[in-house]
Amino acid sequence: MQRKKDKYAQISDSEWIDILMATPKDDDAHEYFFYQKCGAFLTYISLTIFDSNSIYAIVGSFYQFLSYNDWQVLRNYKGRNGATLCSYLSRSAINHFINLKRREDAIIKVDIDQPTILQELSQFTVEEREEMPPVWEAYEQLNERDRTILRLLVIEEKSALEAADAIWPYVKSKNKDWRSLPTKRVQDTISMLKKRALLSLSLELNKHHKGNFYQIEM
Fold this sequence. Notes:
Oligomer: single chain
Shape: globular
Number of strands: 0
Largest sheet: none
């Protein structure tokens, strides 16, 4: 780790932007940037917004936030008023995760965990595809990560630890082996990912129902 610190410590903000946007991805540089350079404010966000001492569950979302639309957030950085890249990203990330938390809290308002909805998802089979219910149509619109999480934790009703081998590769964690981490940290991380997958499902359902039962009040 010290060698990585020495290697990346003097990189300028403009150089970091070039490195992050470059292809193929420099895995070592990305790990240093997200866990070392951005680690302090991601830890703050995790603690204050999500009441968690683990940043593993939000690093992936932060990566998606930065890389969206060909790294639009990075391309918008101008260094105005002497703002460093980290100070700019910390403000941007805080606003992003506050809004994300509000959306996650909306799950409670629509009660997406109610048995009727999840039973409909878990009881659906491929043979019934001709009469595909809205909840399954919504499920099929989700990304691979969210489908995998809901399939394992909801449809197959596995526990977080039983599903960890399949889910952990989707976690942007520098600890590749989840078994090396405290059990509660793994469970909390997967629980947060499940909550976000349910949020994605509720938003897709909202598209189908257009203001009926699944309408989310933002």
